Amino acid sequence: MKHPKGFTLVEMALYVGICSVVLFSLSTLFATLVSSRVKNQIITEVNQQGAFVMNTITYAVRNGVSIQSPASGSASSTLIITSSNPAINPSIIYGSSSRVVIRESTSTEIFLTNTRVIVNSLLFENVSSSTTDTVIRVSFTISGNTNSTKQEFNYSKTFTGSATLRQ
What separation in angstroms does the CA of 19 have from each of 12, 27, 30, 137, 143? Predict the structure, then answer.
């Protein structure tokens, strides 16, 4: 007796089941990879922009001659620095529309952060006294600017640093 060629219903169901499991596993793996990629991009963006802002502010303070604001022993959301170069006097650093801005002399505003991050609680503290060098403490929080409500895409980091005038 000759057997007909082809698949039985049981064999076909088994093949479809195995293919479904493999395709489901691959799609889950792909979704996980995309999700972790987005999270890593947000973390990298926050860290890079935070480090850039902190380096720019501390560089400006170190190369300044005097601090106009905040006064000794006080805090402010705006930092005003006088430098030895009259072309950039005064240098003003402040927060505007969730971004950090620097303006030198009468020039236009230069944004130190882009729209992919949000800067919160920018604070400058003049922690010097009459017997010490002028020390400015800087602190701010940067968060990733995502439209997602998913917790895994929300990332923020607080940056704190200080700089002393070179005299």
Answer: 11, 12, 16, 60, 42
Which letter does DSSP use for residue 154 in this model? -
pLDDT digit string, tens, across residues 117-167: 999 889 999 988 777 788 899 999 999 877 767 777 788 999 999 998 876
Taking the whole predicted model, whether its pTM rises above 0.85 is answered as no
Is residue 124 packed enough to be buried (19+ CB in 10 Å), middle (13-18) or exposed (0-12)? buried
Residues 72 and 128 sit within 8 Å (Cβ to Cβ): yes
Q: How far is CA 26 from the centre of its chain?
A: 32
Alpha-helical segments (H) within the chain: 9-62
pLDDT in tens, 79-103: 999 888 777 788 899 998 889 999 9
Helices (H) and strands (E) in the chain, counts: 1, 9
Closest CA to 51 of 163, 165, 164, 157: 157
